[in-house]
Specification:
This is UPF0033 domain-containing protein. Belongs to the sulfur carrier protein TusA family. InterPro entries: TusA-like, TusA-like_sf. It comes from Methanoculleus taiwanensis. By secondary structure, the chain is an alpha+beta fold. It has a single domain, classed as Translation Initiation Factor IF3, CATH 3.30.110.40. The chain contains two helices and four strands; from the N terminus they run E-H-E-H-E-E. It has a four-stranded mixed sheet with strand order 1-2-4-3, covered by helices on one side. Helix 1 links the parallel strand 1 and strand 2. The radius of gyration is 11 Å and the shape is globular. The protein starts with a strand and ends with a strand. The mean pLDDT is 93.
Length: 77
């Protein structure tokens, strides 16, 4: 899937990935796709919760070699 921006959250946990997601998403236009790689189990859930809370949509998820990749479509505001 094509992504307009990429955020690498591998090795990050607690609050850091949420700040990284916000920084990655903010400059995108409505409908753009943010690709996010995570490897921490807790962060995987946090990404889904964050996207839903912000009104964004997780449109695809891929898993390979311990890394989960999320493709998140930015919601309109």
């Amino acid at each position: 899937m094509h992504a307009d921006r990429y955020v690498d959250c591998k090795g990050s946990f607690c609050q850091a990935p949420m700040f990284m997601l916000k920084d990655g998403m903010d400059p995108l236009e409505r409908g753009s796709i943010l690709k996010v790689d995570v490897d921490a189990e807790a962060t995987k859930e946090d990404v889904k919760v964050w996207a839903k809370r912000m009104g964004h949509e997780v449109v695809e998820t891929e898993k390979a070699s311990g890394v989960t990749t999320f493709y998140i479509r930015k919601a309109g505001t």
